[in-house]
Design a protein that fits this description.
The protein is mostly helical. It is built from 7 helices and no strands. Helices cover about 65% and strands about 0% of the residues. The chain folds into 2 domains: about 70 residues, 434 Repressor (Amino-terminal Domain) (Orthogonal Bundle), CATH 1.10.260.40; about 30 residues, no CATH class. The radius of gyration is 15 Å and the shape is globular. It starts with 8 loop residues before the first helix and ends with a helix.
Length: about 100
Protein backbone atom coordinates (compact mmCIF):
# COMPACT_ATOMS: atom_id res chain seq x y z
CA UNK A 1 0.00 0.00 0.00
CA UNK A 2 1.30 3.46 -0.74
CA UNK A 3 2.36 5.63 2.11
CA UNK A 4 0.01 8.50 2.85
CA UNK A 5 1.08 12.07 3.54
CA UNK A 6 -1.68 12.50 6.13
CA UNK A 7 -2.45 10.24 9.07
CA UNK A 8 -5.59 8.14 8.71
CA UNK A 9 -7.33 8.03 12.13
CA UNK A 10 -8.42 4.40 11.95
CA UNK A 11 -5.08 3.28 10.52
CA UNK A 12 -3.38 5.17 13.36
CA UNK A 13 -5.55 3.42 15.98
CA UNK A 14 -4.66 0.05 14.46
CA UNK A 15 -1.01 1.04 14.25
CA UNK A 16 -0.92 2.10 17.89
CA UNK A 17 -2.55 -1.21 18.84
CA UNK A 18 0.10 -3.13 16.89
CA UNK A 19 2.83 -1.12 18.64
CA UNK A 20 1.20 -1.82 22.03
CA UNK A 21 0.99 -5.57 21.40
CA UNK A 22 4.52 -5.57 20.01
CA UNK A 23 5.80 -3.90 23.20
CA UNK A 24 3.84 -6.38 25.37
CA UNK A 25 5.63 -9.18 23.54
CA UNK A 26 9.01 -7.53 24.03
CA UNK A 27 9.57 -7.22 20.29
CA UNK A 28 11.38 -4.40 18.60
CA UNK A 29 9.95 -2.95 15.43
CA UNK A 30 12.87 -4.46 13.55
CA UNK A 31 12.33 -7.93 15.03
CA UNK A 32 8.59 -8.04 14.26
CA UNK A 33 9.20 -6.76 10.74
CA UNK A 34 11.82 -9.46 10.19
CA UNK A 35 9.61 -12.24 11.60
CA UNK A 36 6.68 -11.14 9.44
CA UNK A 37 8.68 -10.62 6.28
CA UNK A 38 7.87 -6.93 5.95
CA UNK A 39 10.23 -4.00 5.82
CA UNK A 40 10.94 -2.04 8.97
CA UNK A 41 9.95 1.16 7.13
CA UNK A 42 6.60 -0.34 6.12
CA UNK A 43 5.83 -1.54 9.66
CA UNK A 44 6.83 1.86 11.04
CA UNK A 45 4.48 3.54 8.55
CA UNK A 46 1.66 1.20 9.63
CA UNK A 47 2.27 1.99 13.30
CA UNK A 48 2.20 5.73 12.55
CA UNK A 49 -1.07 5.53 10.58
CA UNK A 50 0.56 6.46 7.27
CA UNK A 51 -0.44 3.17 5.62
CA UNK A 52 -3.82 1.48 5.46
CA UNK A 53 -2.74 -2.14 5.82
CA UNK A 54 -4.47 -4.89 3.88
CA UNK A 55 -6.29 -7.65 5.70
CA UNK A 56 -3.51 -10.02 4.65
CA UNK A 57 -0.89 -7.70 6.16
CA UNK A 58 -2.86 -7.50 9.39
CA UNK A 59 -3.16 -11.29 9.55
CA UNK A 60 0.59 -11.63 9.02
CA UNK A 61 1.27 -9.16 11.83
CA UNK A 62 -1.27 -10.84 14.13
CA UNK A 63 0.47 -14.18 13.50
CA UNK A 64 3.84 -12.58 14.26
CA UNK A 65 2.46 -11.17 17.49
CA UNK A 66 0.79 -14.45 18.47
CA UNK A 67 -2.67 -12.88 18.64
CA UNK A 68 -5.91 -13.11 16.69
CA UNK A 69 -6.67 -10.67 13.91
CA UNK A 70 -9.50 -9.44 16.14
CA UNK A 71 -6.94 -8.25 18.69
CA UNK A 72 -5.51 -5.73 16.22
CA UNK A 73 -8.87 -3.97 15.91
CA UNK A 74 -9.84 -4.13 19.57
CA UNK A 75 -9.25 -0.83 21.37
CA UNK A 76 -9.66 -1.32 25.17
CA UNK A 77 -9.80 2.43 25.81
CA UNK A 78 -12.98 2.68 23.71
CA UNK A 79 -15.29 1.01 26.18
CA UNK A 80 -16.31 -2.02 28.18
CA UNK A 81 -16.92 -4.36 25.24
CA UNK A 82 -13.46 -3.69 23.82
CA UNK A 83 -11.93 -4.12 27.29
CA UNK A 84 -13.75 -7.41 27.77
CA UNK A 85 -12.51 -8.72 24.43
CA UNK A 86 -8.98 -7.64 25.30
CA UNK A 87 -9.13 -9.34 28.70
CA UNK A 88 -10.18 -12.64 27.08
CA UNK A 89 -6.87 -12.62 25.21
CA UNK A 90 -5.10 -13.47 28.46
CA UNK A 91 -7.49 -16.17 29.71
CA UNK A 92 -6.70 -19.87 29.61
CA UNK A 93 -8.76 -21.88 27.12
CA UNK A 94 -10.70 -23.69 29.88
CA UNK A 95 -11.75 -20.41 31.46
CA UNK A 96 -12.95 -19.13 28.10
CA UNK A 97 -15.05 -22.26 27.59
CA UNK A 98 -16.63 -21.86 31.05
CA UNK A 99 -17.41 -18.20 30.38
CA UNK A 100 -19.01 -19.06 27.07
CA UNK A 101 -21.10 -21.75 28.71
CA UNK A 102 -22.18 -19.32 31.45
CA UNK A 103 -23.23 -16.52 29.12
CA UNK A 104 -24.89 -18.84 26.61
CA UNK A 105 -27.32 -20.03 29.26
Amino acid sequence: MPRRSEVDPLALAVGKRIAQLRAENGLTLERLAYECGVSKVHLSSIERGLVRPTIQSLQTLADGLGVLLLDLVTFPEQGDRHRLIDETRRLPRGTLKRLLRDISG
